[in-house]
Design a protein that fits this description.
Layout lengths: L1 H24 L1 E7 L15 H8 L1 E7 L6 H10 L3 H4 L6 E4 L6 E4 L4 H4 L5 H7 L4 E4 L12 E3 L8 H8 L16 H19 L3 E6 L1 H9 L4 H23 L6 E6 L5 E7 L1 H7 L7 E4 L3 E5 L5 H11 L6 E5 L21 E5 L2 E4 L8 E10 L11 E7 L11 E2 L3 H9 L15
Parallel strand pairs: 1-7, 1-8, 2-17, 5-6, 5-7, 9-14
Antiparallel strand pairs: 2-16, 3-4, 8-16, 9-15, 10-11, 11-13, 12-13
Helix pairs in contact: 8-10, 9-10
Length: about 425
């Protein structure tokens, strides 16, 4: 009997060790192509040979986003498995009070521990003894659970940057005044950093984010030749990363996820709520933070009973406004209540098709723009805000059929692949087999 128990203990221990070893040999690479709308993949002539190959060898689906359909909130949902009302990102940074006018501003350089209110999958991986890396990921500044970081604000002072310069992977001149370089050049440098980290460090989890398509979409709008060109460029960046994994001998043990944070809509008219508020005598009392397809309205909470109806009245009948949502409607959109979240606004404005909000304070309240442009920030229920989801490699069956997935499902899926726990996540692992 004792021998049987002893043998059982040995089997359990060996199985546990084998599972740990297997997890340590695995690599998960998440490649986020900012602003890549799901509808773009419907075009059979889109020049994306690398993405098409990943899809053929794996699986693809539309991916639901969360409100607000903005970069940092949705990237944070992908690594936490929860919505904005839990993880705390409502803009591209933390919305902080100024003590003056405007009453709030967005602070992107706040440390991750203060910015993100729940555990992430990279926290879980690091705490399980796995290695983690990020290149141009967001809401991740000074994250203690990232082993190697090449940030959006790359500089020669960064440890990874110094190592790459020392080894000849990049030149010091490449990252001098890096934030002022054009976005295509920065995407190339970020891709070089991702390739370097794979080749030299083979992290168990790599978070990699590229920005050029988002910039092009904002300037020219989706479904344009400029957008198609940017997508082709990004496909070549993805190819470099896929080739690096193969070159590192990790092709059989790596899972690729190619995702985006939100879709895009074209617009030809802009809405200027600040102009409406100024006309109603509310300048200096009611502040607007535009987010493309939506806008956040702030005013002193102690004066809400007086200012809320005045603000709503000032916007009555304004061309292009679809909804004016108050606190009673926030929960249904996955947004927190103002009394529980200091960053939260008092009103949410949403735009109709073909319109977007701006912060302009003068001129007509609604006006045509010189040429079409593109925006996001529309409600996540709008199909144009759907993102892409592609999975390929280890743990993914070629030709796996998927229904629409949610970006809340990314973190639990990655956690399962790496053999770590993420109990706070509301999403579920995606069935990739």
């Amino acid at each position: 009997m004792k021998l049987t128990i002893a043998l059982a203990v040995i089997v359990v221990c060996c199985s546990s060790v084998s599972a740990q070893v297997a997890a340590r040999e695995r690599m998960v690479v998440i490649i986020s192509l900012d602003g890549f709308p799901a509808f773009a993949l419907d075009d059979p002539r889109l020049p994306i040979p690398t993405l098409r190959r990943l899809i053929r060898n794996g699986a693809a689906a539309r991916m639901a986003t969360v409100n607000p359909t903005v970069t940092w909130p949705n990237h944070t949902s992908m690594v936490t498995g929860v919505r904005a009302d839990e993880h705390g990102l409502l803009a591209n940074g933390t919305i902080a009070p100024t003590g003056g006018w405007p009453p709030v501003k967005v602070e992107p350089m706040i440390g991750k521990e203060k910015m993100v209110h729940v555990p992430t999958v990279y926290d879980a991986a690091f705490q399980a003894g796995l290695t983690t890396a990020q290149v141009d990921w967001v809401a991740i500044h000074q994250a203690a659970t990232i082993t190697w970081a090449f940030s959006e604000w790359a500089s020669a002072d960064g440890p990874v940057e110094r190592e790459m310069i020392r080894n000849g992977a990049i030149a010091a001149a490449d990252i001098e005044n890096f934030a002022k370089s054009n976005i295509l050049f920065r995407d190339q440098v970020w891709t070089t950093a991702a390739v370097y980290l794979i080749r030299e460090h083979t992290p168990n989890l790599l978070l990699f984010h590229l920005l050029s398509l988002d910039s092009v979409h904002h300037t020219y709008g989706p479904r344009t030749l400029a957008a198609t060109s940017a997508i082709a460029f990004l496909d070549s960046c993805v190819a470099r990363v896929v080739d690096a994994v193969g070159g590192a001998g990790k092709g059989q043990s790596t899972t690729f996820f190619v995702v985006s944070d939100h879709g895009f809509k074209r617009f030809t008219k802009e809405i200027r709520p600040s102009a409406a508020f100024a006309a109603a005598g509310l300048a200096g009392k009611v502040y607007v933070m535009p987010e493309g397809g939506s806008a956040y309205v702030y005013f002193d909470r102690s004066e809400a009973a007086e200012l809320a109806p005045k603000a709503i009245q000032a916007l009555a009948g304004v061309e292009g406004i679809d909804q004016i949502v108050g606190p009673s409607g926030f929960a249904a959109l996955g947004l927190p209540q103002p009394e529980r979240e200091p960053q939260m606004y008092q009103l949410l404005l949403t735009a109709k098709e073909g319109y977007a909000f701006t912060g302009a304070t003068g001129g007509p309240v609604t006006a045509a723009i010189a040429q079409q442009a593109g925006g996001h920030g529309y409600l996540a229920s709008d199909p144009d805000m759907d993102a892409i989801f592609i999975a390929s490699g280890y743990g993914v069956r070629a030709g796996a059929r998927l229904d629409k997935v949610a970006n809340l499902d990314i973190a639990p899926t990655v956690a399962k692949l790496l053999g770590v726990a993420l109990p706070n996540a509301k999403g579920k692992p995606i069935p990739l087999q």
